[in-house]
Each structure stands twice: as C-alpha cells, then as structure tokens.
Amino acid sequence: MTKQGPGVQPDIAAGRLEPEAYRAHFADVHPPLAREAALVEANRCYFCYDAPCIEACPTGIDIPQFIRQIATENLAGSGRTILEANIFGGSCARVCPTEVLCEAACVRVAQEGKPVAIGRLQRYATDPLLEEGRHPFARAPRTGKRVAVVGGGPAGLSCAHRLALLGHDVTVFEARERLGGLNEYGVAEYKVPGHFARNEIDFILGIGGIELSTGKALGRDLELSALRRGFDAVFLGMGLAGVNALDAPGEDLKGVMNAVDYIAELRQAASFAGLPVGRRVVVIGGGNTAIDIAVQTRRLGAEDVTLVYRRGPEAMSATAHEQEFAQINGVKIKHWARPLRLTGSNGHVAEAAFEYTRLVNGKLAGTGESFALPADMVFKAIGQVFVADPLREDASEPLELEDGRIHTDEEGRTSLAGVWAGGDCTARGEDLTVQAVEDGKRAALSIDRALRR
Predict the structure, then answer these.
(1) Mean pLDDT across the stretch 190-215?
(2) Mean pLDDT of the 22-47 span
(3) What span, in angstroms and rounded, lies between the C-alpha atoms of 122 and 103?
(4) Domains of the chain: which residue ranges?
(5) Cα gap 337→84, rounded to integer Å
(6) Same CATH topology for 35-132 and 243-383?
(7) What fold, for 146-241+386-452?
(8) How confident is the model over 140-169, as pLDDT tens digits?
C-alpha cells in the first residue's frame, strides 16, 4: 500500500483551473430547447389516450396535454398545465430521472428506441413563467385556518403553496437560512444552478399567504406539541438530517467528509475557484449524491476521482444515465468493493482500503482480497438518515415511526391527530424530488378536507 511519509502534506488546493473553466464546468448541463427544436420534438408525441407517461409521473402531470399545447404554441397554457400538478415543475424538469419514469413509459421507445424528450419540453414550457415571475394561479378567499409547515424543501413548499392556494394561512419553519432543501443545498450546481433554485422559490411564494420563519429547527427552536396547540394543522417535511457512518477505522481523519456537506458548501460559495479540492479523490457510495460529488470534484480540478460501490452497477440507486454521465466526465467507477479502513499521515487521510465483495446465497460477503487507493480527500455518500429525536418530546403521544422514519397513510396523515408528513422523512418517501412534491400536494389536499370539516 502506498502511504504518505511523515511530514508530507495532502495535495489539496483551490483555484486549480482558469476562471473560464469554472464557468463552463458549472454552467447548465442541459441547454434549453430552441423554439424550432421544441416544436419538432412536441410533434413526435402521439398524445396517447390513457397515456402511460402520466401513470409513470408521480405528480400525475397531463403530459400529452402540455405537449399538445407546446405544439400549438400555447406556451403559457402548457406551463400552467404542468404547474397545476407540480409547482416544482421547473426544477423537476432538470433533476427528475425521466429516463426511468415518464420517458421510459413513452410508446415511442418501442417503435424508435427513443422517447419524446418530455423533461426538456417541460423545461421549455415552465422556464418562461419562472423567468418572468408570472404566477398563473389566484389564491382563494382566506379561510381563517392556520397551518404550520416544518421544512422549506420541495415537500414542505409544495404543501404550503397548495394550502395557500386554497385560502389557508401558512407559516413555513426552516432550519437553514434559505429555503429550497436539496434544490438549494444538495443538488449538483450544473443541474440546478443556485440562481434558478432561488427564482423558483420566489415564484412559488408569489401566491401569497405564506409567512417564513428561517433558522428554526424542530427540537431546537420548535416543539411539535407547541405547534399542534398554536396551529389548526401541522405538516412535517424536514427531509433527512443525518448521514450514515462508514463504520470503518479512520473515518474521523481530516479530509474524510460527508458529500452532502461539501455540495452544500459548493452551492453557497461566492466563487468556485475558492473551493479547495484534492488532486486524488475517492467517493464511497452508489446514489445520485455519490455521482454529484464525484463529477463536481472532477469539474473543480481533481485529476483522479474514483467512485467505489459495494455491489454491481444494476444495484446502484443512481440511474444508468447518471453512471454514464460520471464516466464521461472522467470518473472511474469500481464495483463490488466495500470500505475496509482509512489510513492517514499526520492526522489527514492518505489512503482508502477496500475489500472485494461478492454475493453468497443472496447476501453480500467479503472475499478476503483487498486493494487500496491513494486519496487526498474521501467523500462519504452512503445515504442519509432521519433524526427522530425531536419528535419524541411528548412522551404521552409519541409519533409512530416505521423503519426509522415517520409512518403515514396514503394521505400523509401521521399517528398524531392534526399532523401530516411527507417527503424523505417518511417511511413512504422514495428520495425523489418529484415524489416529495407529490407528498406535499397530497397532504395539503387532505389537510384542506379536514379543516373544512
């Protein structure tokens, strides 16, 4: 194994690239469709009756309808059709894994091997509304009911927007200083640029009736019992605040970081050139966060980036499209290996050792063989976990959990009267932005029915 000798410093530096390289590397990875291209693509759609693409969309967007509106150049109507079902239609057009959802269900795949570019058409229709700030909806008369929404990410804001639209007054409590959740802090910058994420939030809040209270976390600044007393209903959409541990020796060495923390720092940075990055980077994990951190460190100037996953490519939660994108960007992916230990020099990580794995009777097992990768930085991207402690403050009425997350029914109702939940913090969560948006919308409709009764 290669080790750094005593006194040798890790090769970590900022400003590895020229200024124009940062602009190119973190520009929007998918440029918008021009008018002519959008019209050609829209006219590929068969406008199916009982379209399978609608069934495949968690938010139930009427995809044939919005594409038909594009084809007839009714762009404002198309954007409204999308946003009626999914108020985060703009960001979902950028981050949604359309290749395994709506586009995978497109009948054009069977005929031509190529679906209609639904995601890019969705962006074509929604971007003008968001850029111009033209909110296509009018708020209903006020009902006098007040709802607390905990969490200002896609689930919480989707719920807040729908409730405000229906005439209820909403207060959104967010632990961070900015709203947006993963769209603001956790998605690769080249997928959802920071300025777009903030414009989308401003657009959503344009409905009115939504009061903001940032820097307020449940369990630290807020108590669930107090929210239940002070509001007519409560929606919990806090996401996942914890990060899984590697449970490997050396995890506490300097240079070993949580990928989500580094991505958040990158997205809030005033200049990408000011971010330090190692020359040799190792990423442990197999989901979208692992792909995002691997590609972004490569685009920051890391020369050797290796992503290591314990199983095969088909088991990775990152789609085949995402895996291919990482490899095109110079990321090496090693499958069938799990972390063994991290070793360092002068308290800083220098090497990551892995054991080869295989399946034995359907269970993952080590082979006894190992290899090591030199590393200036190691990123953990092995999943996030729900921190349930703040929800246990009222021992007389504990909130029921399932597999470590909040248990809800199909409408988002929890075990406590007057409390709903949605998004990644729930046992039903699928860790997809589009599913979180649907959870928030569905819960809002359920809350509305309950309040009107």
Answers:
(1) 95
(2) 94
(3) 12
(4) 35-132, 146-241+386-452, 243-383
(5) 45
(6) no
(7) FAD/NAD(P)-binding domain (3.50.50)
(8) 999 999 999 999 999 999 999 999 999 999
Q: Say which residue the tokens 């460190």 belong to.
A: 297
DSSP 3-state of 44:
coil
CB–CB of 318/288 below 8 Å? yes
Whether the per-residue pLDDT at 394 is higher than 60: the answer is no
pTM: 0.92
Query: Which string of DSSP letters, residue by residue, matches 399-411?
Result: PPEETTEE---TT
Residue 392 pLDDT: 60
List residues bridging with 348 in a β-sheet. Answer: 254, 345
Cα four-point dihedral sign 41, 203, 139, 58:
positive
Give 381's pLDDT tier (boundaries 50, 70, 90).
very high
The fold for domain 243-383 equals FAD/NAD(P)-binding domain (3.50.50)
CATH superfamily of 35-132: Alpha-helical ferredoxin (1.10.1060.10)
Q: Measured between alpha carbons, how far apart are the two ends of the chain, in Å?
A: 68
What pLDDT was estimated at residue 283?
98
Beta partners for 171?
148, 211
- Whether 6 has a pLDDT exceeding 60, the answer reads no
Q: CA–CA distance from 173 to each of 52, 204, 426 (Å)?
A: 37, 16, 18
Sign of CA dihedral 106, 110, 116, 119: positive
- Of 260, 253, 306, 314, which is closest to residue 284 (Cα–Cα)? 306
Number of Cβ atoms within 10 Å of the Cβ of 103? 22
Alpha-carbon gap, residue 319 to 36, rounded angstroms: 30
Residue 153's Cβ-side half-sphere holds a number of Cα atoms within 13 Å equal to 30
Summarize pLDDT for 110-120 with one digit per residue, the tens: 888 999 999 99
Q: Are strands 337-345 and 377-381 parallel, antiparallel or unpaired?
A: unpaired
Residues in the chain, overall count: 453
pLDDT of 2 above 50: no
Query: pLDDT class for 386, splitting at 50, 70, 90?
Result: confident
